[in-house]
């Protein structure tokens, strides 16, 4: 019973895809040039959705409204005209300067590794983590908060996982960064490097059951076998085949195209080019912790 | 003899009649709340007709669409010449029908974050005005009312007239307005009456005004006390069995040995009209007719219809003149109007000065 219920929407979706494919084939054969152009545009959309993930609205259908999304985007673009919000990923090291009325000098600069990035639109946030004086510090920043004076990317890189919340349970040296760190520049046109470091976690107790999270960036967890057995029991490996779930969790590509073409026209208009400093210099690691 | 008998019979009949009357009358009926009269307002009619495909050619269908479109374009709302009442405290203006389209944060100039709800004022148009004398409410107010209000019937959201019933379209007959999907009535002072066909925009309100917003809360069905009234429930462990989310005791003993009226218990939650009062308007978008109103707990789900009124809260009523009876347009307005305290997203970052 459950199986049929779960499969029916999938079939509907597949049919939908098929219809789309048929439509695309039924259209007159496009010339090589237009196809190339289309491919380029498609590629740029894929690029943009990685650089500007917060421009995609919440895919929850009950929260969506086209006019609200349009107004929200225009506000985001207006804010971006006043502050350079750079391309960064979970695992990049950032420095954020914030206006704070209670700090002497009225500015507060914090350097840390981005361990989480979430939310969409004006409410998108990211968390920076660092260990200062043997004390782990995490600060949640709002990306479009006007009290943020500047966001600098000191080291642009990705990690093996989408969230690095396990750094809370890792040894402190993995989340210790020099507050006076200099910007590392990558060569022009280079892809974003992936740091495949494997983190060593402290023994339990932890803030979460990390053995259930399919983490790639951690060393062997050294747990008794029963933990892995339980993790296997509660695992849902079929979810990645649930097309309907995937469809409901994402924004269709046609809509993305509309959103990012709007953004692109703005980027062209304001003369913002992708000036990403991508030249990596070798920096001798210093032992801090 | 016969006469005497007949008189006694009549007397008995009278007595019996009086007895039945005294039995029917209920003591102290005048003191109790009268039961509501089961009569709906005149505009509560069947709205949507049974859908069936009309045997119309495509040309005719297009022609019908054109007719509707033409009528849409013909409506103009200009200020009638005889309306020159100046606003004064105590006058009640009309409210508007709006749609709750979402929530997003804004920041003040002092760096504080506020949540704002976006209310899109729909294409409101006046359909009918009932004078205080002609309006016959389903539940008349008890006692003498000193300043009686008229009733303004407003419609919003352009609909396809062919989808509505004949009776529903009849409501709009004399107004010159094309049938609307949503109707609402607002009580107004007779001075604030508007002629039929007048359209009302978001600029009916000013930035800095306070409004009350009425909406239908989300229907949550039958809920327990923890969700419905925010009870704490009971512990998960320490020997607690079968009472983790229950309300616990509902009354004492002795003289109070009964369940008191109004005791909070499980029951149906939501799906009732609620008003959130005194919400500040922080910003108005004139292009899309959107009001940015403080708060993120406005009753109703996103994309649901809400009704906006000038606030009734005494300390938040407007003291300065507002567009009266409504905003008539004509002047150039910027796309976004902001409150003085609000930080605009196009402004440079907030920097605090050292003292």
Automatic annotation (TrEMBL), chain A:
It is found in: Mitochondrion. It comes from the Eukaryota. Keywords: Mitochondrion, Ribonucleoprotein, Ribosomal protein, Transit peptide. Its main location: mitochondrion. GO terms for biological process: translation. GO terms for molecular function: structural constituent of ribosome. GO terms for cellular component: mitochondrial large ribosomal subunit. Belongs to the bacterial ribosomal protein bL19 family. This is Large ribosomal subunit protein bL19m. It comes from Tribolium castaneum (Red flour beetle). The lineage of its organism: Eukaryota, Metazoa, Ecdysozoa, Arthropoda, Hexapoda.
TrEMBL record, chain B:
The gene is AUGUSTUS-3.0.2_14311. GO terms for cellular component: mitochondrial large ribosomal subunit. The keyword Transmembrane does not apply. InterPro entries: Ribosomal_uL3 (IPR000597), Ribosomal_uL3_bac/org-type (IPR019927), Transl_B-barrel_sf (IPR009000). One of its GO terms (biological process) is translation. It comes from Tribolium castaneum. Residues 233-263 are annotated as: Disordered. It comes from the Eukaryota. This is Large ribosomal subunit protein uL3m. Transmembrane segments: none annotated.
